[in-house]
């Protein structure tokens, strides 16, 4: 029985420009196909041969043989991508292996959780998008940016793309789905007072969300876990606030001025109550020890103690 292929074997297969060229050619050919409901059609040997710079068919045949099983699959109709092929070719085409372009810092409004400053500066710090506070010189928030993202958008449009991407991904995390690999996310709720979090930061509970498969980790205030749930998104949408288009550095004002709060209401197992306030309306969410809502209710401000 053949032993299982390692990651190193898999990458060794690509240490040849002709093979990378084949993967690109398959992607371009599929892109140029007329859209159909059945998805993309596999490519025949001769269709690939027409598109690559490989001197003869026996060489192409050899390289295709090497790629099949890892990056391509061969069916009766021709060649198509495997999951690994699909992932790697998009990564190559988007040039996400390059460093992100340098961008000038962008002035943006938000709230520094430490000092309350509202005029902030956003910029790229290698593969991270960072919002910094010019008053206390501390990072306000940061998130991964892709080189393709930094190339495609600039200024306000880049900020918008970052807000949307982070919001959508954090929403998936709340549903227990890893945005990177679609594996399972496990969530722990931690008490901020047990952690080395600065006392200036108005966060009582926060979550650590981890993917056991790819080891990607997310973290945020427990109030944000509650805010990126459908009932909260709808509650704010009805009041003219688009949570999914709001950056974390902008959400910080809700924590700073006490409109968003979280408290523990039970132990063993722990349970939490999060309140999200908007003018005289309040959305109350009851969360279990995995930060999943068990119940939500909309209440008028006057009934809130
Ligand atoms: Zn500050
Ligand atoms: Zn993952």
Notes on the protein architecture:
This protein is α+β, with helices and mostly antiparallel strands and 305 residues long. The protein has two domains: 9-93, Winged helix-like DNA-binding domain superfamily/Winged helix DNA-binding domain (Arc Repressor Mutant, subunit A, Orthogonal Bundle), CATH 1.10.10; 160-303, no CATH class. It has ten helices and 13 strands. The protein has a four-stranded antiparallel sheet, covered by helices on one side. The chain has a four-stranded antiparallel sheet with strand order 10-11-12-13. A three-stranded antiparallel sheet has the order 7-8-9. Strand 11 (271-278) and strand 12 (281-287) form a beta hairpin. Helix 2 (17-32) crosses helix 5 (83-93). It is elongated. The mean pLDDT is 92. It binds zinc ion (2 copies). InterPro entries: DUF7347, DUF7351, WH-like_DNA-bd_sf. Residues 109-291 form the DUF7351 domain. Residues 8-92 form the DUF7347 domain.
Beta strand %: 25-35%
Oligomer state equals: single chain
Reading the helices and strands in chain order gives HHHHEEHEEEEHHEEEHHHEEEE
Overall average residue pLDDT: 92
How many β-strand runs? Answer: 13
How is the largest sheet built, in terms of strand order? 3-4-5-6
Distance between the termini: 68 Å
Task: Write the SSE topology.
Elements: H1 7-12, H2 17-32, H3 45-51, H4 57-67, E1 72-75, E2 78-81, H5 83-93, E3 106-109, E4 119-125, E5 128-132, E6 139-144, H6 147-152, H7 155-174, E7 185-191, E8 205-211, E9 217-221, H8 222-227, H9 230-237, H10 248-256, E10 260-266, E11 271-278, E12 281-287, E13 293-300
Antiparallel strand pairs: 1-2, 3-4, 4-5, 5-6, 7-8, 8-9, 10-11, 11-12, 12-13
Helix pairs in contact: 2-5
The protein binds zinc ion (2 copies).
